[in-house]
Specification:
4 copies of one chain form a homotetramer. Chain A is α+β, with helices and mostly antiparallel strands and 367 residues long. Chain A contains 9 helices and 18 strands.
Chain lengths: 367, 367, 367, 367
């Protein structure tokens, strides 16, 4: 515990690197919704390693199977169980590292917490854990898209010290993002980023980065003050993704440097309702969506697995030099793009279902 | 909903600006713990406005009463209910704003979500909501301090564009923090910050800021992968505080700019166990505390209430100019210090109790 | 923990016999609902001891105050906190029993579980704990009544070996129930029951009983398979009331003796939809309400506090004879009537709000 | 929702009659516990239909596979996912019933609640749903047995009007229970029961029954007042099993007929602690286990599927006569025995883990 996320759209994930499979159970998926594996597979494919020279070439098909909850292509309202088989189920080739907790990995803390850890080291802290999240979140995305027209688009906005400017947040789409292997929609900056990743690979080193995300066409009213405010649930969701170190929404840390007169978003008439002139709030006020685009950024540290020899100690405290073999991603942010999108979708779908409980509240209040 | 936070140390808060009172119920407070109001009042006093010329002078004693769960100065293991009476219970003096959603406040979103909102505007999104959090978190702090020797210290590390360097995280204490009204332990930078706040007040404007926090002497093993990882729960807790826009732990957003070889924290023998040479991880690896100091930063936007006239529209979309009367905090970060500390304490106490379920796991695992 | 009940209509209760007060926080109460103390007080009055010669004459006004969540007589959608002060806050007069765990009371188990217990013995296991439930449930009743026209009526159907036949479940109302102090709508059997209670009092003994309950005009669709089926949540709610030993719904234990051909409820056209000819199901099929009246019965053991001397042992195992002083209810079922009703209301309000998430599910399914 | 049960030993089940598979995910399974499929299969085998002439001969192997959470035969502390494939995945042979809601089945309520239902009718309300419960509960049983020596034994104590007396609750074991196909340890009454089931089959009818259960060697202190009292959680667990109509613990409904002087359980010295002379409480006082045997009874209605023609209406309200084809269990209670045991185990394991949070509470309280 806790591998369950959400109140009404409740996702439970399971699985680690070398067991039989990884996946998720969605409890509370709306009924009577068309759903097949084809709705889920694309985001799994975008998450999959080996899509380009930029990521590890460990080839895994990661094909999802819907085990339950769907009949004749429609959801029954019952739990939707999703399974992706692990190709490599032998946890055997990690024995060399049995006695050495790898620096900035979870070996040490899992061993201390549970009194045991997966022989593969990665176990539940490995990137394969995210498959269940992505599969379940793809279902959430479909619900949001078909019910409200919600669009969720994430992209790489930073690799190491290279930073991309904000794109046009009203129009940025996944096509532009997937235009290049680093998933940065700014083509020339993408080229720089690719160079930076290649250099990290050549150096047997790794590099961190930033994923930015925008969610458009959200209904007004999502978010449950005070502890399940929209930004609070998003923050939890994002910081639960492996390797994340920070989250900011709207103006974020830059907003802390501003004055109120510059930061406030005045209201203005938009269509039949109200909108705001500026959007430093990032689409959230008082923890509740206000109808403007929601946008946020997530910081990812550089991957801990590097080929450069590292001086550290083993579990007994003896000095050792650790040299990682095998091939590993020098930069995870391109693959993190669908993870960020699908985790955002889980939060939004859950809060959208929660908000339905207030539908039809009597009018005539004190407004 | 949801006004409940936590799994085993479960805090439910209640109350808004002008009702009879605000407070919290702690369900799951450990039994047989010495507890009186005197353990709780100090953090409420630090949170209270009117402590200095830097904050609003609306004077409220905010005296806490323990309603239940304690007998003869010891907790019974039953719910501990805490109440702070509201002095001003007349929601009458806000009628001028009934038709105007204040920019970057929660008036618009609350009205849309609930079909009603507190006449005072602030209601549940007001700063008074945080009283229940602080009171309950003060109990969590006591549990952590007496059980593990945990020390939690937050301070103001940024006001507008003025930033303080990291203090010595092994020694920084609340005495140093409370040395000056802006709660920045660096005395000369504190003076600059005070000037910046005074200027905002003179301008009838406001200014944002940063609160940093360190938690020392945590036991190893706190955090519940994958969705209740330590940093995920902290992120939720912090982003649920009013006016927050960002959270980062350890290296944070700066970590995203680094290479793995620079970011990794090699292990080293410390006492009878292992520690790390550096601490870019911020005391967390794989979502679980590793025994090193936990530190994080929280971004607060500038307060939305400003005296400067603002062009906006009313609920019907008509142009209006809004001018806030009364006195308001031009900068909330000094008062946010105990809120950040007590929310961190809630997270840590909850995860510490969760971890007790694994006590005595059989050894002899695959380590 | 756990003193919180419900998913979307979430009630947290607090308080024990001799602390400052008892009460509840309702998180998730629908917004914009008219609500004052006058909606809550009647059920508290029905629950109160000292209403007649049949129950203990310890006089307590039990006046409820709404602390938060309501403004100008309407709910804000924020937590509704309810408080009833304890008149007698001195836990001093129970010292004689400090060393003796009273037979069939909770003294022994509380002491073992928590390492401490309320000096008064009763503490959180006392009947005063139910005040918070009743107050919160009265709000749930109002929501159900005004939204769906739901009617919930409980009555005493058994005292000792005296049993009343089922009344007309379509018409039985609280007026008939409150016609006599034992709250049995069958007047002549009520007289017998009263005699039985008087006899128990004269004998310094106590007697158990049965409370039956019917809920009419439920919407179809309430209940969340598989673990939050309507009957499962009702069973939990009822067995969480002090002194309960059994729950049965519809045909109950008698249904276990029947054949399927006799037990099955054939469908029939009713109005614009379907109903059933018989109702052995008790208004629930597959864990979901079917629109027929829901009815169930709850068994209460005889109160453990009796004046007759009891041979038992103290905490150290020494033989003692225990003789309870003071006056105590010889039979709790009349006062349990509003507790059963309000707990049922909590379950139904919660499930009704949960069901709203499915509103508007697309038609055209496989029916 | 909600298909998740428990707080710290959290079981999520999935699957219906004709999807790819049924199963469960256990989140919070203690780490470092030896576990293989062989620990789980026996209870699944006992639950399986076709074990004798008394139940349906639809043959399904129901072989469980551990998908995750176990490595080298030991639990990792991560989610344990369990899968049992469905042999028959064609939901096609139920089309005749598409327009007719079967009496006392869940067809009508599922259709109304979700706007869709599984073509097979049974779907999630089918007996196959219980496979996930049994598999997960078998893991809970192992934890309880190895940690505390807990023994859980259920048996059939009633079929129709035939009732068996309580066996010796200190010694009754599964061997005695499995001695005959009706799972009643009293051999001569078992013969009568078998005759009653055979008669129901010959009549194309069905018959209800009672399952009784005892749990021995429980630690003192299990149960979380007030809403998660031990009996409350057991009641929820039992009433969530398909076809249940009642639950009683200890003296149960009979206790309601007793006087306090007869019902109270005086304390007595037992070993180094205290026990009770009698056990009308059924091992629970104040919602918390007291160390005496816990026992309870569960009522099951007769199966709704019968071969006798039934007059009912279709979804449009037209009169029809329904005649069920195929072979069906005339009596489910023998197969319900392992379901009751494993659901009890889930409750107890969860509460045992919850109680660990209180381990080491300081002594010196007010006892």
């Amino acid at each position: 515990m806790s591998s369950t996320f959400g109140t009404l759209f409740r996702v439970t994930t399971f699985g680690e690197s070398h067991c039989r499979g990884v996946g998720a159970v969605i409890d509370g998926c709306p009924s009577n919704m068309p759903l097949t594996e084809a709705d889920i597979q694309p985001q799994l494919d975008r998450r999959r390693p080996g899509q380009s020279r930029l990521s590890t070439d460990r080839s895994e098909a990661d094909t999802v199977t819907i085990l339950s909850g769907v009949e004749n292509g429609r959801t029954l309202g019952t739990p939707v169980a999703l399974l992706v088989a692990n190709k490599d189920q032998r946890p055997g080739d990690y024995t060399a590292m049995r006695d050495i907790p790898r620096p900035s990995h979870a070996d040490f803390t899992y061993q201390e917490k549970y009194g045991i850890r997966a022989a593969s080291g990665g176990g539940r802290s490995s990137a394969r854990e995210t498959i269940g999240r992505v599969a379940a979140g793809a279902v959430a995305e479909k619900y949001l898209r078909e019910t409200f027209g919600v669009e969720i688009v994430a992209w790489v906005s930073g690799v190491g010290t290279i930073t991309a400017p904000w794109p046009d947040m009203d129009t940025i789409g996944r096509d532009q993002v997937d235009n290049n292997p680093v998933r940065c929609p700014d083509v020339s900056i993408a080229a720089e980023m690719i160079g930076r990743v290649e250099q990290a690979r050549a150096d047997k080193d790794s590099v961190g980065g930033i994923v930015s995300c925008v969610c458009r066409h959200l209904p007004v009213g999502l978010g449950e003050p005070v502890f399940d405010k929209l930004e609070a649930r998003l923050a939890q969701a994002m910081l639960s993704i492996p390797a994340t170190k920070g989250f900011e929404v709207g103006s974020g840390f830059a907003g802390a440097r501003m004055s109120g007169s510059a930061h406030n978003d005045p209201f203005v008439k938009k269509g039949s309702g109200l909108g705001t002139v500026t959007n430093h709030s990032g689409g959230i006020q008082g923890g509740i969506s206000n109808g403007e685009p929601l946008f946020f950024r997530v910081a990812f540290k550089p991957p801990a697995t590097i080929g450069i020899p590292q001086k550290t100690v083993d579990f007994s405290g003896n000095d050792v030099v650790l040299e990682a073999g095998g091939r590993h991603d020098p930069c995870v942010v391109p693959r993190a793009v669908p993870i960020v999108e699908t985790m955002a979708a889980q939060v939004l779908a859950d809060l959208a279902l929660c908000q339905k409980r207030l539908a039809g509240h009597r009018s005539g209040g004190s407004r």
